[in-house]
Amino acid sequence: MLQLENIVKKFNGFPALKEVTLDVRPGEVVGLVGENGAGKSTLMKILNGVHMPDEGKYRLDGTAVTLKGPRDAASRGIGMVYQEQSLIPSLTVAENIFLGNEDRFVRHGRIDWRGMNKAAQLIMEEVELRVDPLMPTSELSFMQRQMVELAKVLTLKDTVSGNLYILLDEPTSVLEKEEIEILFRIVRRIKERAGIIFVSHRLDEVIDISDRIYVLKDGEVVRELDKSEATPSIIHQLMVGRSASESYYRDSDRQPAGKDVILRIDALSKENAFENVSLDLHMGEVVALVGTEGAGTEPLIRAIFGLEKVDRGSITFDGRDLTNGVPDHAVAAGIGYVPRERKIEGIIEQMTIEENVVLPNLRNMTRFGLLDFRNIREATRHLFGPLRIKAQSRHTLCRTLSGGNQQKVVLAKWYNTGARLFLLDHPTRGLDVGAKEDVYDLIREICARGAGVLLIADTLEEAIGLAHRIIVYRDGRQTANFDNTDPARPVTPLDLVSHMV
């Protein structure tokens, strides 16, 4: 039903895709995997009409097509659920679902809002989303917004007579296990009348949901795998060009934490977020905060960085009181923050890699009141070393990078400041298996030089693999505190889950 044949795409002469061929059959989920920068995002944008291929054929139901943009793609039944989400927070759920398709509700020159809300309610039931269609989208959780994205795509079935082609770009990147099960249940149901392309870095999920899997490396399809022959180790080898380490996290390389406390949180409370939280973080220590969505971990680290105000309690870093401070104070004190929403708070897409990396440290990059570009070049020369950022040069605009490479830029930004405390909110979200290993190596290096890390991990296994201690939260309260350094008593995911729910 959908076929790409020998697709080539170049940017400034640099090949992003090299003669890529793939197809999707009716009622099928096709997995698409590859390292960051392998060409997945470019391929998805060609499928959705955002980019035009330089060479090759694009066919729908055997007929060659040339898409003039996403609106043209939608008119042919092609819809995409974006990793970074494309919703407008100030609009209602119903308005977002039918954004760009309001014409169907126009009566005598005016929009029939009641009809729109009723139609939104019906499509929301298909994706098991139970919220008021009049609710502002900004008030929804990440999972609920993801379901709005999917509902928005499913409205195409009412406007096109042929097949649906649904593109899912990292739809599970920050979802909990139960939420992923809901999403997969919906995907299996809607594939009866749709062809689906599923992109994810979580290899076990790709194998679970996909009927076939294409592996991309450096802009080329290196292998097409049937579900029966796909394993995480085989896919890893194809993607990265080397075998996976026996342990991603290499917990045997974890060095003991120091004795000195660098961060102290005492009886910290914020209404409707967290209550009476106390913890100490030592030099060279990784403390992981785990809990289900809404447990209070994200507001807690945002409060440490000065992005949220607290009602009671204190935050002390290196002997300095940072309670209810501002981000500028936190950065000056030596704190770096990697947010969950990198495109909103982590980078400035219209600036270069180099400019983004030196932003927090500009006061040390000037001479006689002017930017010292020699100093800036020296400060950013390591970018393509430890973190292996894939780009043509340090002058590449961040908006042209893959999501994983953008995340590496965010990490590099704080690594470059010499920060002594790193607040990491899902730092490996959207990263492939090879890039995750790079980040884990960087976290170990950060700790080796005496900095502390407060981590909200992508998975429970990641928390266990990286942290010296794990603190569990439920409904804004600490429910358990595990020492994760005793090999005789290893912490298991079941230990954590029992205190999370």
Describe the protein.
With 501 residues, the chain is α/β, with parallel strands linked by helices. It is built from 17 helices and 24 strands. It has a six-stranded mixed β-sheet, sandwiched between helices. Strands 18-21-22-15-23-24 form a six-stranded mixed β-sheet, sandwiched between helices. A four-stranded antiparallel β-sheet has the order 2-1-4-5, covered by helices on one side. β1 and β2 (14-24) form a beta hairpin. The chain is globular. The mean pLDDT is 87.
Distance between the termini: 43 Å
Give helix % range: 25-40%
How many distinct beta strands? Answer: 24
Helix-strand makeup class? alpha/beta
The amount of beta strand, in percent, is: 25-35%
Number of helices: 17
Uncertain stretches of 5 or more adjacent residues: none
In spatial order, strands of the major sheet run 6-9-10-3-11-12
